[in-house]
Design goal:
Layout (H helix, E strand, L loop, with lengths): L1 H18 L6 H23 L1 H28 L26 E8 L3 E8 L9 E7 L5 E8 L11 E3 L8 E3 L5 E3 L2
Antiparallel strand pairs: 1-2, 2-3, 3-4, 4-7, 5-6
Amino acid sequence: MKAQIAAKYIQFLSNKKANKNSGFTLIELLVVIIIIGILSAIALPSFLNQAAKARASEARTNVGAVNRSQQAYYLENQAFVASVTADNGAPAALGLGVNNTPNYSYSSVLDSTTGVFNYGTPGTGKTDLKAYVGGVLRTANTTTISNLCETLASTTAAAAPPVLNPTANANAGSVTCVAASTKPLN
């Protein structure tokens, strides 16, 4: 008799499992949807910021290229070029193809006593972009040193130019960014 009861109990359990509807419950689905929502809320801001980073790389590249060209021009001519682009958009004396774009406008400010500052300023309405400034400064031994600085926050204003810090290196000095508003990139 006990064997018969045990067999019927096993049969009851197997029928119970077979009759149970398979699938996910509503609570399981809600938990999965909530987890996916939390993960996407965490990841979405970094994905959306990638477009601004790509546009900013344009200015970093162009201002860095102008810095290097200014250094080469100075070594050959013992002078800096005052304009990055000609009035008609053609390359200036540096021979670079750096033109203003909808994202950034480029300019140079010549300081006859220290060197030249090359600016990459965000275009009108581009409030999600950072400004860049590169400084090429002459040193006592007729060479040049440079630095590239980025504003700490997005802005449509020009970045503060870097300054020469002669005490950092007795031979050549160094170019440092203004700590309150910019950070060095090289």
